[in-house]
Amino acid sequence: MRNSEFQGLYEPSTERDACGVGFVANIKGTKSRAIVEQALEVLHRMRHRAATGADPLTGDGAGILLQLPHRFFKREALELGLEKPRRRAYGVGQVFLPPEPAARAACERIFEDVVREEGQRVLGWRDVPVDSSQLGPVARGVLPAMRQIYVARRRVVPSAFERKLFVIRKLVENRVRAAGVDPQGRFHVASFSSETIIYKGLLLPSQLSNFYADLRDPDMVSGIAVVHSRFSTNTFPTWDLAQPFRFIAHNGEINTVQGNRNWMTSRRSLLQSAKFGGGLDRLWPIIVPGKSDSAQFDNMLELLVLGGRTLPHAIMMMIPEAWDGHPEMSDARRAFYEFSGSLMEPWDGPAAIAFTDGHLVGATLDRNGLRPARYVITHDDRVILASEAGVIDVPPELVKKKGRLQPGRMFLVDTAEGRILEDDEVKQEIVNRWPYRRWLERNLFVFDELEDVPPPPPPDAEALARLQRAFGYTDEDLRLLVTPMAETGKEPVGSMGNDAPLAVLSDRAPSLFDYFHQLFAQVTNPPIDPIREKLVMSLATAIGPDGNTFDESPEHCHRLALPGPILTNEEVARLKGMAGAGDFEPQVLSTLYEGGLEEAVSRLCDAAVQAVEEGTDVLVLSDRGVDAKKKPIPALLALSAVHQRLVRDGIRRNTGLLIETGEAREVHHFALLIGFGAAAVNPWLALDSLGSLGLSVELETAKHNYVHAVNEGLLKVMSKMGISTVQSYRGAQIFEAVGLDRELVERYFSGTPSRIQGVGIAELGREVDQRHARGFATHSTDELAVPVIGGAYQWRREGERHKWNPDTIAALQHATRLNDPKRFAEFERLADEEERSPALLRGLLDFDTSGVTPVPIDEVESAADIARRFVTGAMSFGSISAEAHETLAIAMNRLGARSNSGEGGEEPGRFQRDPNGDLRRSAIKQVASARFGVTTEYLVEADELQIKIAQGAKPGEGGQLPGHKVDERIAKVRWSTPGVTLISPPPHHDIYSIEDLAQLIYDLQAVNPSARISVKLVSEVGVGTIAAGVAKAGAGGVTIAGYEGGTGASPLSSVKHAGLPWELGLAEAQQVLVMNGLRDRVRLQVDGGLRTSRDVLIAALLGAEEFGVATAALIVEGCVMLRKCHLNTCSVGIATQDAALRKHFQGRPEDVVNFFLLLAEGVRRRLAALGARRLEDVVGRVELLKQRTDVAHWKAAKVDLSALLAPPAKGPRCCTTPQKKDISDHLDHQLRARPKGTVAITNAHRAVGAMLSGELVKAHGAQGLSDDSIHLKLKGSAGQSFGAFLARGVTLELEGEANDYVGKGLSGGRIIIYPPAGSRFVPEENVIVGNTVLYGATSGEAYFAGLAGERFAVRNSGARAVVEGVGDHGCEYMTGGVVVVLGPTGRNFAAGMSGGTAYVFDRTRSFRQRCNLEMVELEALVDESEIWLVYGLIEGHQRATGSAQAKRILDNWEHLVGSFVKVMPTDYRKVLQARRASRLRPPGAEPRLRVVGGREG
Amino acid sequence: MGKPTGFMHWEREGAPKRPVEERKADFREFVLPLAPEATTRQAGRCMDCGVPFCHQGCPLGNVIPDFNEHVYRGRWRQAWDTLARTNEFPEFTGRLCPAPCEAACVLAIDGDAVTIEQLEKEIVERAFAQGWVRPRTILHRTGRRVAIVGSGPAGLAAAARLNRAGHTVEVFERDDRIGGLLRYGIPDFKLEKSIIDRRVAILEAEGIRFRTGVDVGRTPTWTELKASYDAVVVAIGARRARALDVPGADARGVVQAMDFLEAQNRAVAHGNGSTMSAAGRRVVILGGGDTGSDCLGTSLRQGAAAVVQVELLPEPPRQRAPGNPWPTWPLVFRTSSSQEEGGDRLFGRRTTRVEAEDGRVVALHWVGVRQVDGKLEDVAGTEARHEVDLVIQAMGFLGPDLAPLREQLGVELDARGNVKVDAAFRTSVPGVYAGGDASRGASLIVWAIADGRDLAKQVDARLSAATE
């Protein structure tokens, strides 16, 4: 089945891949077999980075790009009797053809026709010899025919020949598509060039050379070989998506691809290049639809290169470094990037890209450096670059240099010139081609130069109230959102998730914004921390028309730089007033209307087109002037409709587009307006409202704060998706619509996923009318003095409905305390709302009992059996009190069910049974991004290890446990310091991609082989695809969380607007897993707002076999939804660490047990009614569900859930055996015997020491053995996660080098790494360990005689380490431990570092500018005891590694000690000082303010 | 929210009251205003719950957390606007409401609720003092006419809202002054009558016509009334009191609470003595509820020799029983302000006989009762005799007096003898609506106001629909 044919929730566009990339090249360009063979070896050595699907013999794709081997092709041509191809005068096309002879012939005929039409000559075709015998059935089933076409150059100069071949290829592709001769889409031109040739396919890396006999041919030689192995989330069989593409091999993903493609479309009229003769129109689409993000990137790059830019230049345009606010970057380079920004928006996302045009070969990383790339330069002129070190064995004496690519940096080999060009040299030349700075100065207008124009005066109180109402403001918008933003400059935070209706099911005329949900990164790419890693983020905004993308001229930067994407009323007035100045032609279009909405929108679009065609280059949409008659078009609709219309007409780039709107007030609104194409937004009414709010700050400050809060919020929304710059976020449409009609979306929001239908433009118009009437209805008993009641965040009787309301909460508490089934039934009735209009998607579902014979209830499995499928949600000890946490654990253990530790570690005292037999240990231990308390002991004390990728309340975001919540006890279990704030980073720093996840699963399985490893994801479009990837990565369980749930603190805009209902995510995961044949190996769990047996059963029918409950369980414990969890003031003693408040905790394990058994009883009853005896029998039986037809609600009735209810493909629909990650190849099997000699190690040996450590801790406890009891010597290039979770008593001594994640979660062990004997390079200048070393380490020691990569000691909380230099973001989020750096550091050192100390040897006194000083202070090393500490560590380092650098320092200690800079977190120091002081003072009670007054009678 | 940790720092502090001896000497209100700082603190105790149970507990749906915050932040005007939006007459509820909101306050789970009612009173009194409570000009008149029968809280609330919606409203009151039960049923020490007058003056100024001394059902008849108005609202309360049904109950000196209270209220109004005074007499009040307490306070003020308040049901527990969990109304032992002024309390006594001499009561005979499976049974051997001069029956109300309404208009009654209405307050007769105690039976003032408001919305909707 072709994936796109499936009618369920699956969206082919969500497929993701990540991979291993690499190249081998001879610097001098000497061609040889060795290069080819070594490249194939690289591919083979990275096979663990690739994946297989259900069919173990079908890989996700692998390929190799080589220089065209003339001798080989000449020989083959002659053998085939073709005319002899002349050197450099022909091209070869590697063509995949449909295997059916007729279709194949048709394609070939088209190809030949086009070649002739373009004046070239076909020499002939060659069948590519392939051996498909080793292919898996899946790959073989879709195997295309492989042929090569020879085309001889005619009448074009050699330099234009590549371009000609490109034109031919484009025309052929278009014509094949148009002719419909290839319905299955097999036709694909892998390469068509006179320079390079690509062999690739749906293969495992190891199959490549067996499949293609050519690759084994002695004449198949090359000086450059780029390879790629693919790990795709899906295994939908396609041969064409294998890489390399024509210019690149990409490890990563482009997050903004939708926007990039739109912008490309919108530029159509501006693309002119004489070089392509006849214009570009006939080549359209330049970016081929339906291909992967990487393929689209390749398309664009190809166009830029063939259009005349050099390959490095084009790469710099598409993936610019983080130049904005980079003080160390040269001005010329910054000017270049600024200039290029006006030609093209960045293609934003994680990327390690290897690229080549046949002469140049190089690689670059994105600005964040989120993919690894290590290289070796040898004395015999080879360069080997790959995602891992050690992929080719190079004798130590041949190594000239070992390095790594750094964020934003480029590495280039010019084989024609025969030399390596470092980043600076390459870029220097490019950025100095033109005087970019001077061009900018002359043509880029700065906002400050505009004349002051007074804005309209703010409306009076009555007018203000009317406008607020007409624009849909509620009291909550003003009270809970705008007020805190204006007072504090921050986005407000809330807790306990969202239990209000979806917009499409709401009766409160929600704004159009509410129908859209934010998407976020999970697994396949990391979200970014916009606060701690601010240096990569940018809100720089400029507007103005673009010029021809192919040219570079001063006029290209004829633009206006805005103060930012949010404009104040004063700023927009100046902007509108610049018409007279003559530089720009702004025009304001009103978005107000009377009458029908649809006509109004189309009038607006026409007016916009006309304005642009008449030369308007700054278009401002405005909804000022609303009155009793005139209503505003919803801002998002107006904006997106105009944007998309201008894009379609190809004139969008001719104008800047801004919107002045009264509707936008919260971060989500701004994100949407910008995400759908606005350059800037002016929230005039929100700003005009500030004066009336009785704020505690001055009005000017309030305005400033408000705009600041929106900006910060925007950065957060962007970073959730891993997008760094607002320039690339603009128009990227990173949203999913829920409950909008397909036609509406197609027309105005084209390209946005919308899967369940819903309201159309007529209904939106009706909601405009409803809002308008609130402010301007003539007859109303409502008072203008008080805003409309919202009730969206806090329950209000006349506000939005909530699932958790006084009635349901009271009923649940009573029912469980009294163990009263009748009261529980009452609770379920209230919570399910079956009679009233439904609030959630599942409310629209019903059980289809037609054709079902009920069974007697006593034949159904017992409630106790069913209850074992329940789990409580992940809530950390720290976020909730010990009492609340342990009560849940006890209850779940009594039930034989499982509680989840959350991410806060667990006190070891809980691993033993209590005297009464209760066990307070959480069966599920969570591994989250901060790795708090994730020790080896913690990991072995688990039945299940859950990797939390995202959480429902705030997917894509990190968290923060404020210092006041971190008491002694919590600090201890989290291995931190009491009183010091703890930050959870948004991403796992060892999961930037799917193959990284596979690695973490491997690590965890190694340390605890008996545990099930599961992965928690949050529902969004594409989650099914990710779930499939997770299954392929070896997890035994997948949890799909819905956005409703969530107990943690989170920005309010995330609570409401990020993520989707679990119904969609679960159904999608189920469908995609079944479709991929992966369902039987993973247990599917669901959580997020499950409350009743109806919920549970619907989830089961949609595919879940386990059910997470968090909020309801807390309510049983006494939670009454204060939603104040983030304030530590929980009055019922749950979400608090305050000793006095914890005394109010009244929860009892028996109530929780009652709850789950009552719930299970309900499930039993429903099972009986469905004729099922076991829950297992109905898992995935989606046929037993139907959409209700009795819902008369005017909006709900338009929802169509057929995609949700689509029966999946054939195959198992539930889990048979949860898989375990295969760790049979683990080196510890060998190390267990404690060999005396040196053990050889390669990069395929991963997580070395983890398994051994797990066994030791299981046997001996956390204290383990005494230090150095087991000392193992290894030699070679260690694979990833070397020494992960290494336990106390174990020393790993490695002679060689290691890859990423060395010492991850180090738990007391010792790791020593030094270069091999015989090395000729200088150790302290060469990379010895990769990225993210000592992540989450809790104790132990590490000594590295060389440089480390990015994020050294990230979130270290106790390990001591010495290293000779680190990359960017060193000691990020560190909370404890000691790090000594004996050499240079990268940028952003100590970002988010709240504890521990670092000592940096700063000879050049340049450290300060590379250190992030927001949380730390720098001091000299003067304290005697500290001097000895550092000395001792360096001495230890010298002893362990023989480091020359250490020796030099120690030898000159007196002179050099002054060069050490101590990095000390500010808060940490305060806490330490306070503790020291309190030890001196007698303990006294803190005076507590108490007012005791009169007693009421 | 006011102050996140307010409730952790500050304890509940009620309004000060005049000392018992002092207040017993007159009939004036005795609850004093709260000091401004104390008010701020008390408002600051509010936790601004995500699910404010108080807001649900309040029949009016007062948006309590919102006005608490305004008070805490000193934004009295907004506090008033917020309160006034949901409550027509906070000056009444702020004095008289038993505050189900406080019972439902989350802090009351195992501690002391926010002093919501007191804050309400502070807000409204401040609003009056600041001149914010002013008659509004009704800009638009619909020409529709509505008759409201009964000027208690339900009738007044309905009148106020309907008038503001532009309809022409006339209120008919059988008594000589406006206010219904508020006027003569509530002792002055709980609600001084100037508070009612202050409000009525505003309503009058807004255009409502009040017609006292009109006994609808007699002249005019209900039929006549209905013929001359677009809508008729029945808000006549439920004043039919339950009476002792034991031998001797017709003795002199056995009176109804309402008669007793009304006599005192009239006396205060006219500045003379009560016609039914307890002065120097031994008094028994039958009924442990609020009305009984009002009688107790009145008796003490009149100078009764001794007062015993007797409750049929056994003494409630001090703490909530398991079947009576938060946030339901707590059925626990409580002491009213009158009870703290004096008198004795007895529980679990059923009156079996009234002993009279010369037709005048001299003693009551009781038997002790206990509760078995929710039913009361007498306890053998607990019979007792209690000498008494005045017996006040405060045993609740049976319902409205509806005979004329039924006879003249054929309005249907429900099983309990109240006017039968649907969810839109419509009676069985088109154009006739009913609300408050008349349709729900005797209840709280806050329910009466809530009904009046909701009813007005329904009547308005129908009148407006008919206009279009």
Alpha-carbon Rg of chain B, integer: 23 Å
Distance between the termini of chain A: 77 Å
Average per-residue pLDDT of chain A, rounded, comes to 92
How many alpha or pi helices of chain B?
A: 18
Overall mean pLDDT score of chain B? 95
Rg of chain A, Cα atoms, Å: 32 Å
What percent of residues of chain B adopt helix (DSSP H or I)? 25-40%
The low-pLDDT segments of chain B are none
For the termini of chain B, the CA-CA separation is 43 Å
Q: Outline the biggest β-sheet of chain A.
A: 10 strands, mixed
Shape of chain A: globular
Number of strands of chain B: 16
Strand content of chain A: 15-25%
The fraction of residues assigned to DSSP E strands of chain B is 15-25%
Number of strands of chain A: 50
Number of helices of chain A: 43
Provide a descriptive summary of the structure in words.
The complex is a heterodimer of chains A (1497) and B (468). Chain A contains 43 helices and 50 strands. Chain A is an alpha/beta fold and 1497 residues long. Chain A has a ten-stranded mixed β-sheet. Chain A has a seven-stranded antiparallel β-sheet with strand order 7-2-8-1-13-12-14, with helices on one face. In chain A, strands 30-39-38-36-35-32-31 form a seven-stranded parallel β-sheet. In chain A, α14 packs across α20 and α24 (806-818) packs antiparallel against α25. Chain A is globular, with a radius of gyration of 32 Å. Chain B contains 18 helices and 16 strands. Chain B has helices at 6-9, 20-23, 36-44, 53-57, 64-72, 76-86, 90-96, 100-104, 116-130, 153-164, 181-184, 193-205, 222-228, 257-270, 290-302, 403-409, 437-440, 445-467, and strands at residues 145-149, 168-172, 209-211, 231-234, 240-241, 254-256, 282-286, 306-311, 344-347, 349-357, 360-372, 375-378, 384-387, 390-393, 397-399, 432-434. The interface between A and B is large, with 55 and 63 residues.
